[in-house]
User: Fold Tc1-like transposase DDE domain-containing protein from Euphydryas editha.
Amino acid sequence: MSTSPSTSSNRKKPFIIHKQAREMARNVLQICIEEKKDNNLAYSLNNALDRAARYTGLTKRTLTRIQTESKIGSLRSPSKKGKMCKKKTNLNVDDFDRSVIYRCIEEFYLTKKVVPTCPKLLAAIREKIDFPWGVTSIRKLLKAMGYKWQKCHNKRKILVEKPAVVFARTNYLRKIRQFRENDRNIFFLGETWIDNNLTFKKCWRNDYIDAVLTDTSSTNRLILVHAGSRHGFLDGAKLLFKAGTATGDYHGQMNSTNFEKWVTNMFIPNLPQASVVVMDNAPYHNVQENKVPTKSSTKTVMLDWLSRNNVEASLSMRKVELFELIKLHAPQEKTFKIDQLIRSHGHEVLRLPPYMCDLNSIELAWAKVKRDVREHNVNSDLSLKRLKEVTEMAINQVTEEDWSGYDDHVISLEEHYWQKDVSIENAIDKFIIEVSDGEDSDSDSALSVIFASDSD
Assistant:
């Protein structure tokens, strides 16, 4: 005997109206009743936003934001913290784009003579590079790049670099200037990828770089590790291998182990005596030697570190006591394994300051190599064997004259940053003084516009 489906199964689930919506509905109904009694609208029909704010109890700003959001897509519910629920944004901003952002901020202070706000900075950045993210992402990126909003006496905010970032750049520039004055051999090392799907994207341009090549997915991708100086690539230091494999000493993605093998077997043996090695702060360059334990380290790790550093400690001591000993005897600066390895052979090591990849001459060489590969890869269908051949040919086409030009360009940038840091420092000090002096003024001066922060 067949049974017909129950009518209850076809019945729609009850629509649940939560407390806030109920209060808003009550408010709308109450005002409508009052208007009926008065036989008059509280606001005219032409004042739609004022009427909606009166009925709902929401601010006009909130209603405008909801209207804008509805035009873009479906409305979303806010999270418990009060922020809109959004998917996690992946800010894939490379070092070259970060350099562009740095220059944009520099232009605001030194050319436009104003303090940048995030919306204005976003507009300036989009004029130079492809930047699909919004103001919120700019704030996050600025923080990641070492910037902060510094409050003046009148609580206005000015965008400045954190002292540690400025110090790292100043320290680097001072040291490399000294090495150049002493006519030392300076070698820049680095790694890059070569893909059979190389494509260009919009970016800042100069005489040496036409465009930045995007990182596209490909089954045929090579990792290139090399070093060079003003006189060209270092003979015997080239390492070119297929990415993604896992056999052999170097046949895998670059990591600290493979990088150390390259430095030991291919780089150091070919370096001239008493050279200076410049490298960036890639994670596999930064394996620490004698790494200092943290508060969360186990008691055993703390005791082992203290023992290796000839500091007396006993098992009966508590972790808080051990950590105080560690802080007392910890070195002021981190020491990296690669740096110590290179220095043990009589060379000096310089670490590039954060976000200053444009001070690395080898990045300009990479750009030329990739451009040459792309010119031989019209259909983006090179086999792995052919990709290697084209890459080898492109590397050989980077001449000593090219490297000399790259080095001259970097030297000019070093001088540029050296001078600009002083200029920006003076400009920010001047802005702070002017704002502080005018903080009691009631007039809407230009400074009020200049220093208005969008951080709220």
